[in-house]
Amino acid sequence: MSASSDSLSDKAYIEHKEDVAADVKPQQEEEAQAVDPKFAIRVRRKIDLRLIPILAALYCISLIDRTNISVARVAGMAKDLKLTVGERYSIVTCVFFVPYIIFELPSNLIIRKVGCRNQLSTIVILWGAVMTGMAFCKTWQQLAVCRVLLGCLEAGFFPGCVYLIATWYKRYEQSRRFAWFYLASMCMSGFSKIIGYGMSLLAGRGGLNGWQWIFLLFGVVTIALGIISIFLIVDFPDKAKFLTPEEKAYAIQRVQEDRGDAIPDEMTLAKIGTHMCDLKLWAFGMCFMCSTAASYAFSYFLPVILSGAGYSTKMSLMLSAPPYVFGAVYTAVSAHFSDRYRQRALFIGGASLMCMIGLFLMAFVGPIAPRYLGAFFTIAGCQCNVPAIIAYQNNNILSHSKRSVGSALTIGLGGVGGIFASLVYREADYPKYLPGLGATIGCQATILIILALLSFHFRRCNKRADEGTFVIEGNPRFRYTI
C-alpha cells in the first residue's frame, strides 16, 4: 500500500530519529521507568483539560453550522427561498464541500507558522459572521454563496484540530481522545435539531422567519465561542506555554518514546509530494469518505426522511436526537476498547457492519418503527467510524509533515463524502431516498474491503520488519497498528 515512505532509502531520517527514539513498550512500563506515576497522570489530565474541551466545543458548533440547514429547510426556508424546485437543496448543501476540500491541505501546511490559536480562533469568528449573514439571504443563490464562504473558512478547522491532537498523544491514547473530541458534536448534532426548532418558534419576531432566527442565533453563538477560544486554544507541544518546563519536557518525551516523531521535521514540497504518493494515506481517506457519506447524509436528510414518513415538523426534529445519543455511547465504548486492545480495523469493520444493518432496515422495511430503529444503527456505525478512522491513520504514520498532509488529505476526502451524500439523496427520490440508501450501503462495503487489504499489507510489513528485512516509515522500531 506504500511505495515511497516504507522504504530503506531514507537513511538520513533514520539516523536523526535513532538518537532520540526508544523501543516501543507498553504505556505503563514506559512511564513507570521515566517519571513518578502521579506526575505522569497530572500532566496527561492537564493536557486533556486544556486541549480537548475547547476544540470539542468549537467542532460541535462547526458541525451544527454546516448541517443546521436541514432544520432551516423544514422551518420555512424551503418555501421562502424556493428550495424544492429541481435540485436546489442538494446544490446548496453540496457547494459547501468544494472549497472545503480545496483549502484543507493549504491551511494545514501553514498552521505551524501561523499558530494554532491564531488560525483556529480567527476562522471560527469569521464563519460565525457568515452564519449570521445567512439569516438575511433573500434568494437561494445568495444562500449558496454563503455556503461557499462557510466551506472556505471551515476547511482549516477540522484537519487542524486532528493534526494538533495527534501531536500530543501516544498512539494507543488517541482513539479515546478523538472520540471525546467528536462525542460532543455527535450529541449536539441530534439535539441541535431540537434547539433549532425552539429557535424557529421565534418566527415573526423582529420581522424574521423561523429559519432566519436559527442562522442568526447560531451565528452569534459561534462568534462568541470564537472570541473565547482566543484565550483557551493551546499550541503544539514544542510551543506550548501552559505547561511548566518539566511538564513540557515530559509531554514531548513520552511521544518521542512511543513513536519517535515528537521533534517537528521541516515541511518541503518534496516531502509533500512523497507523502501524497503514499497509497495507504489514500486508503485511509477512502475509508473516511465512505463513513462521512453516511454521517452527512443523515445530518442533512434524517429530519426530511422522518417528515416524509408522516411525522410532523416538530416530531421529525424531536426524533432526530435519540439516534445520536445512542451513537455517542457506542462511540465511547468502541474507542475505549479499541485503545485497550490496540486494535483498529476490527472495531472499524464492526461499526461498518452495524451501519449496513441500519441502512437495510431503513431501505427495505415497510413499517416506520423498524425503519426508525435502523436510524439508530446507521448513525452509531458511521459516526463511530469518524474518530476511529482518524486514529487508525495517525497510528500508522510518522513525522509532523506527514501527519499534516495525511490529516488534510483524509478529511478532504471526507468532504467528498459530503458531496456524495448531497447528490445521491435527490429530491426526486423523496421521501424514502432508496438510491441514496443503496449507495450508502455500498460505501460501507467499500470500507470492509479496504480494511481487509490494509490488514493484509500491515501484517506482511510487520513480519518483514521483525525479520530485519524491512523498515517501516523510516524507523526500524516502528510497527503498524492493525
UniProtKB/TrEMBL annotation:
<keyword id="KW-1133">Transmembrane helix</keyword>
<keyword id="KW-0813">Transport</keyword>
<feature type="transmembrane region" description="Helical">
    <location>
        <begin position="123"/>
        <end position="141"/>
    </location>
</feature>
<keyword id="KW-0812">Transmembrane</keyword>
<dbReference type="InterPro" id="IPR011701">
    <property type="entry name" value="MFS"/>
</dbReference>
<feature type="transmembrane region" description="Helical">
    <location>
        <begin position="211"/>
        <end position="234"/>
    </location>
</feature>
<feature type="transmembrane region" description="Helical">
    <location>
        <begin position="315"/>
        <end position="333"/>
    </location>
</feature>
<feature type="transmembrane region" description="Helical">
    <location>
        <begin position="404"/>
        <end position="425"/>
    </location>
</feature>
<dbReference type="GO" id="GO:0016020">
    <property type="term" value="C:membrane"/>
</dbReference>
<dbReference type="GO" id="GO:0022857">
    <property type="term" value="F:transmembrane transporter activity"/>
</dbReference>
<feature type="transmembrane region" description="Helical">
    <location>
        <begin position="178"/>
        <end position="199"/>
    </location>
</feature>
<keyword id="KW-0472">Membrane</keyword>
<feature type="transmembrane region" description="Helical">
    <location>
        <begin position="372"/>
        <end position="392"/>
    </location>
</feature>
<feature type="transmembrane region" description="Helical">
    <location>
        <begin position="89"/>
        <end position="111"/>
    </location>
</feature>
<feature type="transmembrane region" description="Helical">
    <location>
        <begin position="147"/>
        <end position="166"/>
    </location>
</feature>
<dbReference type="InterPro" id="IPR036259">
    <property type="entry name" value="MFS_trans_sf"/>
</dbReference>
<feature type="transmembrane region" description="Helical">
    <location>
        <begin position="281"/>
        <end position="303"/>
    </location>
</feature>
<protein>
    <recommendedName>
        <fullName>Major facilitator superfamily (MFS) profile domain-containing protein</fullName>
    </recommendedName>
</protein>
<feature type="transmembrane region" description="Helical">
    <location>
        <begin position="51"/>
        <end position="69"/>
    </location>
</feature>
<dbReference type="Pfam" id="PF07690">
    <property type="entry name" value="MFS_1"/>
</dbReference>
<dbReference type="InterPro" id="IPR020846">
    <property type="entry name" value="MFS_dom"/>
</dbReference>
<feature type="domain" description="Major facilitator superfamily (MFS) profile">
    <location>
        <begin position="51"/>
        <end position="463"/>
    </location>
</feature>
<feature type="transmembrane region" description="Helical">
    <location>
        <begin position="345"/>
        <end position="366"/>
    </location>
</feature>
<feature type="transmembrane region" description="Helical">
    <location>
        <begin position="437"/>
        <end position="456"/>
    </location>
</feature>
